[in-house]
Amino acid sequence: MARRKKLYEGKAKILYEGPEPGTLVQYFKDDATAYNAEKKGVIDGKGVLNNRLSEYFMKGLGQIGVPTHLIKRLNMREQLIRSVEIIPLEVVVRNTAAGSLSKRLGIAEGTALPRPIIEFCYKDDALGDPLVSEEHIIAFGWAAQQDLDDMVALALRVNDFMSGIMMAVGIRLIDFKIEIGRVWEGDFQRLIVADEISPDSCRLWDIETGRKLDKDVFRRDLGDLADAYTEVARRLGVLPSNVTHTVKPHLIN
Questions:
Q1: Are strands 85-86 and 171-185 parallel, antiparallel or unpaired?
Q2: In the chain, which end has fewer C-beta atoms inside a 10 angstrom radius, N or C?
Q3: Alpha helices in 116-207 (DSSP H)
């Protein structure tokens, strides 16, 4: 489609104005960042893989009644999405101790948590997306109590769906983060899952070997990030089984 006016560029995606009011075009970049963009790289094909994987997960959520911003995938790197008012919070769901949780609480990575734990981080790159409590969120007006209750319910439904999908292909869903946005239907507000769901925003470990299949590969210099993402896509049936990263990904419609 013809290039449209750029509205926003983030670390991994660009948003352009959409063809109709209330729509946007979301473009997935090959850029990879870690540690609040202190580490940067360009991974050939990453945007293509994340576009297709995020579409796969968002469509699956829609089929079980979880509302998302996805309208349709346009091409290898772009999606048509609903324009939403993003709540300035990252909603993190943790099933297993890893990453910052392990560092903060001294819990060994890989320790199963007694139940899914939900955390909120304030979206601000300059501050390093700090962890915040529900008291902070309500006091500063980022979301109301009812919003928070609805966000938790959405996050747990996403967790149930994603855990099952991953378990079926031999992958353990360690944790993930999502963003949630507001849309207005007349005078009524509705919360929907926005941004993306991909290996960029999840921790994914092979159940048998513990091999990391997510952005920790890039963060910790554990190998080829595109190979890891391609493995996830292949197991989910998004890519043909004979594709490797040395053969450029060809996506199935």
A1: antiparallel
A2: C
A3: 134-139, 145-167
Q: What is the CA angle 75-173-54, rounded to 5? A: 10
User: Domain ends where: 32, 62, 84?
Assistant: 84
32 shares its domain with 118: no
Cβ contact 197:57 at 8 Å: yes
Nearest one of 208, 251, 198, 253 to 228, comparing CA atoms: 198
pTM of the predicted protein model:
0.91
CA atoms within 13 A on the CB side of 136: 10
> With 0-12 CB in 10 A as exposed, 13-18 as middle and 19+ as buried, what is 175?
buried
Of 51, 66, 84, at which residue does a domain stop? 84
Residue 122, both tokens: 């304030």
Per residue of the chain (253 residues), what is the pLDDT tens digit? 456 899 999 999 999 999 999 999 999 999 999 887 778 999 999 999 999 999 999 999 999 999 999 999 999 999 999 999 999 999 999 999 999 999 999 999 999 999 999 999 999 989 999 999 999 999 999 999 999 999 999 999 999 999 999 999 999 999 999 999 999 988 889 999 999 999 999 999 999 999 999 999 999 999 999 999 999 999 999 975 444 444 444 443 3
